[in-house]
Structure formats: structure tokens, C-alpha cells
Specification:
The chain contains eight helices and ten strands. It has 307 residues and is an alpha/beta fold. Strands 1, 2, 3, 4, 5, 6, 7, 8, 9 and 10 form a ten-stranded mixed beta sheet that branches. Strand 5, helix 1 and strand 6 form a beta-alpha-beta unit.
């Protein structure tokens, strides 16, 4: 696979956290690894999570699909002692904390703060490590429910002209690091390069659109959740016929559903054959809890291979 070639250097030391269950004798247990790397952004060492699914080590010839997950704004950090905030939401939360048997190798990086913690966002400045869910030695911790919203549903009128969501200090600033993470995993683990998927929530949803537009040839399918894409990002995605499944919340006041339509209409205008858009009408911004907590997205991913 041809991707960006930065000066990022992946170190050969991997810290492994392995689950222990006396009832899982016939198959290798899932693992959560912390993979060190030198970032092209600051030339310093950081880490990202790499999840290896149950049974990964049973058959050296088996090739596993890969999923990269981009978290939201509230889980930023230094990629070292703050990396655990990435466990709060998404596929890694489902696979590691909730002990679901998701048959993917999962890459879960952390977006640096880039000074966002100085701008007065309460969810960053006052966050607490107690909010990081803990994996129990046995059993599964209680899941926070995805609740219905009480306010009226947001409007869904099309938007003909949209401002760019530049998302200052966003995922685009570590684009090279992200692509090098994918390269490293594809090279050093039992992976299927034709089944690499990308998904993200909120800030990570915007990042998913950006990365897919810049590197459509890498991914087999993408799913931005509660993050819309500007129409100008769509031509490379349409040209590569990259399957897209987008989710928004009908009562989301943070990223209203009306902003999604212009980009999706652009994809169809360009002849894209596989664009799916789901509005969870009763949900707010935390629509991702229902999406990642279900089965449909994972099954849909596995239906697709890189074209």
C-alpha cells in the first residue's frame, strides 16, 4: 500500500495488556497494545492503542481486517499518560471494556490538545480520569445507556452553501502520523490490506471525511458519525467509489443533521453508487453510543473490500 512517507519511526517495543479468562483455553485471548512511535509533528515519542482480537494468534496465516477509529474532541491528550481517555467511546470501548468479540484489529490514536485545553471547554479543562471506564477482571462493566433526547428534532433542510469546518488543531495536522500507523500495522501484523476501514465520531467524524478524501485508495469503507463533510471533499471519494455510511442525530444541536445533506447530495451528483445516510431521529450528539453499541456497522464493514 502506498501512503505518506514521513520520518515517523515505530519502535520495536510493545506494551501488552492481556485479558485473563480461565474459560478461554481453545483460543488466544484479546490483547490491548500500546505502540510507541516518533511523531512527525513534534519529533517526540507518543503511543497509540492497537487491539488484537480474540483468536488472533491461533493461525499465523489468517489475515484480519483493520479498523482505525478517530475519537472526538473530549478525548484529546498527549498520547502517553492521557491515552486511556481514548477508551471512553467507540469500537475500542466496545471490544476492550465491554468485552465484545469484534473481529478487527483496531488502531486507536490520540489527537494532541493543540492548546484546546486553554480555550475554556469544560469537557477538556475539568475532565477527570475517573471518567475512563475500567475493564473488569471478570465480567463486563455497566454500560451507560444511549438515551432519547427531549428537545424538538432539528430541521433537515438542505444547505446549498456551507462554510468550511476547518476544525482548528484537528486530525488533519497528524495526517502523516495516521497513515504511518496504518502502514506499520499492515506491515507488522496479520492484516488484510483490502479490508481497512475508517470511522470516527464528532471531531473524528470530520477527520474521517478528511482522511478519506486525501487517501481514498487506502480504505475499503468509511463511517463518519455525527460529523459532516464539505462538498469539496467529495470528488476523490466518489471517484474511488468508496462506500460511505453516515450517521447523524435527529436532535443533535452540536452538529445538526441539516449540514450533512449538501455533501451527501454532492456524492450522488458525482455518481457515487454507495452512499448510505442514517438519521437516529430520537438521538442527540451521542448517537455514536447506539451505532458502536450495535452490530450493523461492523457487519456492513465486513461486507466490503477495497475496490
Amino acid at each position: 500500500m502506498k501512503t505518506s512517507t514521513g520520518i515517523i519511526a515505530f519502535l520495536g517495543i510493545t506494551l501488552s495488556i492481556m485479558s485473563c479468562s480461565p474459560n478461554e483455553k481453545s483460543s488466544s485471548v484479546e490483547e490491548l497494545l500500546r505502540i510507541p512511535f516518533i511523531s512527525t509533528l513534534d519529533q517526540e515519542e507518543h503511543e497509540y492503542f492497537l487491539y488484537l482480537p480474540k483468536g488472533y494468534r491461533d493461525d499465523p496465516a489468517k489475515k484480519w481486517p483493520v479498523m482505525m477509529f478517530l475519537h472526538g474532541n473530549g478525548e484529546r491528550g498527549n498520547g502517553r499518560d492521557e491515552l486511556d481517555f481514548v477508551l471512553i467511546h467507540g469500537p475500542l470501548y466496545e471490544a476492550w471494556i465491554q468485552r465484545r468479540d469484534l473481529p478487527f484489529i483496531i488502531i486507536s490514536p490520540q489527537l494532541p490538545m493543540f492548546g484546546m485545553d486553554t480555550l475554556g471547554f469544560d469537557y477538556l479543562t475539568n475532565r477527570d480520569r475517573n471518567s475512563i471506564p475500567k475493564r473488569l477482571p471478570e465480567g463486563t462493566p455497566e454500560r451507560e445507556p444511549a438515551g432519547r433526547m427531549s428537545q424538538p428534532m432539528a430541521g433537515a433542510e438542505p444547505v446549498d452553501s456551507l462554510p468550511y469546518v476547518t476544525l482548528p488543531r484537528g486530525w488533519d495536522q497528524i495526517e502523516t502520523d495516521l497513515m504511518n500507523m496504518i502502514d506499520h500495522v499492515l506491515t507488522n501484523y496479520q492484516t488484510d490490506a483490502d479490508r481497512v476501514y475508517l470511522t470516527g465520531l464528532s471531531y473524528g467524524g470530520f477527520g474521517t471525511w478528511y482522511m478519506a478524501s486525501k487517501h481514498p485508495e487506502v480504505f475499503a469503507a468509511i463511517s463518519p458519525i455525527v460529523g459532516w463533510g464539505h462538498p469539496d471533499l467529495m470528488p476523490p471519494i466518489a471517484q474511488s467509489r468508496l462506500p460511505v455510511w453516515v450517521f447523524s442525530g435527529g436532535r443533535d444541536t452540536v452538529v445538526p443533521k441539516k449540514y450533512f445533506l449538501a455533501g451527501l447530495n454532492k456524492l450522488e451528483e458525482l455518481g457515487h453508487p454507495e452512499v448510505r445516510y442514517t438519521i437516529e431521529e430520537d438521538m442527540g450528539h451521542d448517537t455514536w453510543k447506539r451505532v458502536y453499541g450495535g452490530e450493523d456497522l461492523y457487519r456492513w464493514f465486513l461486507e466490503h473490500k477495497r475496490k
